[in-house]
Amino acid sequence: MPLFDVIGLGGEKHAVIIDIGAAYTKCGFASETSPRHIIRSVITHTLNGEAETVDVITNEQDRRPDELYSILRDFLHQVYFRYLLVNPRDRRVVICESVLCSTLWRNTIAKVLFKHFEVPSVLFAPHHLLALFTLGAPSGLVLDCGFTETVVLPISFYNLKSRNLKVMLLDPWLHHVYEGTAILKAVRTIPLGSRAIHKHLEEQLMDRSLVQIETGIKPLSSVMNSVGRETLEDIQVRTCFVAPKFSGPEGEQRPASLVPKVDYPLDGGRILRIEGQIREQTFDILFDGDDEEKSIATCLLDSILKCPIDTRKPLAENIVLIGGTVMTPGFKHRLLQEMYCLLQSSEYKENLFIKTIKMHQTPVSANCTSWLGGAIFGALEVLADRSITKERYAQDSNIPDWASCVVQALDNIPILDERTLERPVLSRRQTSGITSTLSNISSSLSSRLLSGGSRSPLASSLLQRVGASPSSGTSSSIKENDKENQKEQKQ
After folding, report:
1. H helices within 181-283, ranges in order?
2. Among 93, 185, 251, 457, whose CB has the most other CB atoms within 10 angstroms?
3. Which pLDDT tens digit goes with each residue over 21-74?
4. Are residues 266 and 272 in contact, defined by beta-carbon separation less than 8 angstroms?
C-alpha cells in the first residue's frame, strides 16, 4: 500500500502507470523510479467452462471483441486488486502503448477501464515518446526491440522558424512541455525479437545439443519434442550473449568457437549441454537479416534516410535503445559495428554522410525506460488536460489515435479555427458604421475635456489622438464624415 494512502494527506492520488508488453507487463504509480511489479502478460481465462492460459497481446483478428474484452477485464482486475491493491475509481491511468497498437485493442481497453472499473481518466502514450521523456532530449532515434518485433521511430525537434502556427495553437502542450514530434513516414518495423531468437535457439538445440540422463548421453531430439518458452528464455538470458561481428574475408568459413560449453539443468535430473557456438551465434539472426535482407542495423539507417536531411545528423547522434532484448551483453557494441560497416557500403555511402553514431545510456534498465517516462509524465499537472475523461468518453466512445489529426479541445484552452486566424474583410457599410461610432466617441470626449476651461497635458494628448482642435469642439473633417456616413446609411 502506498504511504500517502495510509497517511491520508488529501489531494489527488498518484496515477497508475501500466505498460502492457507482449511478454511482460510493468505496473506501478506515478513519480516512482521503478514499477511495483513486473508480471507476465498472460491470464488464465475461462472459456466454455474450460480454463486456459492465453496471452493478453496477440493478433486481435483471431479473437472476437467480447472475448478480448473479457481477457483484458480479468487481466486488469488482477493488476489492480492483486498487485497494486488500490481502488481504480480514485486514480487516473496512463497506458504505455505501442506505435503499432490496433484501434480495436485501444478501444477495448478504454471500454474496460471506463465501463467496468470507472476510472476518472485515461491517457494513451506511445513507448518511443516516453523513452525520450526520461532523457530530456527533444529529438532522437528510438529503437524498441521487444518480444515479437523491432520498431524504429525517429523523434524530431521542432524548428522555431518553420514551426506551423496552427499546430502551436491547437496543441499548446506540445509547444511548452515536449518540443518533439514523430516522423511517421520514417517508421521501420521488422519481425525480429525474442520470439525469433527463441525459435532459432530451439532449432540449434534440437540439432546439436546432447542431454545427460540416467541411462547415458542422448541427443535432445530423442528425449523431448520441444523446449518450453520459459526454458528457452532462461537459457537465452543465462548462457547466451551477442558476439562481435566476424571480420574475416567474404566467403571464408567462420573458425570454431572458443567459447566453453555449459551445462544447463532440466527437469527430472537431466543435464543439457549447450555448446559455445550456440551461445555466441544465437543472436546473429537479428543482424544477418530476414528473407528480404533486412536487419536491425538496416532498419535504423533506412529510417534515417527517410527523415529530412537537416535532422539526420542529430538523429544519428541520439539513438535510444529500449526493450528487453537490447539488454543482452554485447548488443550495443554489435549494433554499432554493423551500422559502421553498412555506412561503408555503396548503398548508404552515397546517400548518408554520417561519420559519428552515438547511443544514449538510459537512466534505468532498457525494459523499464518507457514505464519510467510514463511515471514522470503522470506526476505532472498537465496530465489532467491531456487525458480522456470519463465524461468525455460518455459523449464520444471513440478513442483518437495519438498520431491522428483529430485534436480534442482542452477545458481551459479554446481551439482556434482557421477562420479565426484570418483577417476579417468588412463591407463598406460596416466600415462606415465603425467610423461614425469612433467619431461620436471623439466628439463627446473632446467636449468633456474642453468643458473644464483649462486644458491639462493629458487632455491635449488625447485631443491630438482623436483629431479634435482646441479652438473648436469638433473638427470640420469629422463633421463631414458624419454627413457622408448618414447619407450612406439612408441609401
Report:
1. 194-208, 220-223, 229-239, 276-281
2. 93
3. 999 999 999 999 999 999 999 998 776 777 788 888 876 666 788 889 999 999
4. yes
- In tens, the pLDDT along 253-281 reads 777 778 899 999 998 889 999 999 999 99
Exposure of 362 in the CB half-sphere (CA atoms within 13 A): 30
Range from 50-54, 313-317, 451-455 carrying the lowest mean pLDDT: 451-455
Question: Taking the chain, what is the end-to-end CA distance rounded to the nearest angstrom?
Answer: 79
How many Cβ atoms from other residues are within 10 Å of residue 415's Cβ? 12
Query: Would you say 79 and 36 are in contact if contact means Cβ atoms under 8 Å apart?
Result: no
Q: How far apart are CA 390 and CA 115, in angstroms?
A: 9
DSSP state of 59: -
Task: Give the separation between CA 47 and CA 70, rounded to whole angstroms.
Answer: 10
User: How far is the CA of 24 from the CAs of 47, 97, 106, 161, in angstroms?
Assistant: 23, 13, 18, 43
Q: Which of 222, 241, 231, 236 is nearest to 265 (CA)?
A: 231
Amino acid identity, residue 179? Answer: E
- The whole-angstrom separation of Cα 356 and Cα 368 is 27
Answer yes or no: are the C-beta atoms of 125 and 114 closer than 8 Å: no
Give per-residue burial for 295-311: e unless 16+ CB within 10 Å, then b: bbbbbbbbbbeebeeeb
Assess contact for 283 and 331: CB atoms under 8 A.
yes
Q: What is the mean pLDDT of the chain?
A: 79
Dihedrals phi, psi of 256, to nearest 5 degrees:
-65, 145
Count of residues making up the chain: 491
Smallest Cα–Cα separation from 204: which of 174, 236, 173, 230? 236
Q: Which three cell numbers stand for residue 331?
A: 548488443
Q: Three cell numbers at 269?
A: 535430473
Rounded Cα distance, 73 and 116, in Å: 8
- Report yes or no: 190 and 150 within 8 Å, Cβ to Cβ: yes
Sequence-distant (6+) residues with CB within 8 A of 353 are: none
3-class SS of residue 482: helix
Cβ-based neighbour number of residue 280 at 10 Å: 18
The C-alpha cell that represents 366 in the structure block: 532498457
Asked whether the beta carbons of 169 and 162 are under 8 A apart, the reply is no
CA angle 401, 129, 392 (to 5 degrees): 35
**Sole residue written with cell 473644464:** 452
Nearest Cα neighbor of 393 from 86, 74, 113, 101 is 113
